C-alpha cells in the first residue's frame, strides 16, 4: 500500500457523510506527514472543490 505524503493530491472516499458535507470519492489534498499517515493509517485531508464560498477559510489553488 502506498502511503501519501503532505501536499499529495489523492482521491478520497468521504462516505459516510452527515448534513451537507461532501460525499463520494473526491479529490483531496493531504495535510499530514507521510510518517504520521504510515503509523496511523489515517491521513488528514482537505477536500478540493471548484465552488467558491465566503466562509473565511478557503484556500485558492492557482490555475495551471
UniProtKB/TrEMBL annotation:
<dbReference type="InterPro" id="IPR003477">
    <property type="entry name" value="PemK-like"/>
</dbReference>
<dbReference type="InterPro" id="IPR011067">
    <property type="entry name" value="Plasmid_toxin/cell-grow_inhib"/>
</dbReference>
<dbReference type="Pfam" id="PF02452">
    <property type="entry name" value="PemK_toxin"/>
</dbReference>
<protein>
    <recommendedName>
        <fullName>mRNA interferase MazF</fullName>
    </recommendedName>
</protein>
<keyword id="KW-1277">Toxin-antitoxin system</keyword>
<comment type="similarity">
    <text>Belongs to the PemK/MazF family.</text>
</comment>
<dbReference type="GO" id="GO:0003677">
    <property type="term" value="F:DNA binding"/>
</dbReference>
Amino acid at each position: 500500500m502506498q502511503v501519501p505524503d503532505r501536499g499529495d493530491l489523492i482521491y478520497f472516499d468521504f462516505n459516510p457523510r452527515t448534513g451537507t458535507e461532501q460525499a463520494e470519492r473526491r479529490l483531496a489534498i493531504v495535510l499530514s506527514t507521510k510518517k504520521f499517515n504510515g503509523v496511523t493509517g489515517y491521513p488528514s485531508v482537505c477536500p478540493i472543490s471548484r465552488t467558491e464560498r465566503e466562509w473565511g477559510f478557503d484556500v485558492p489553488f492557482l490555475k495551471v
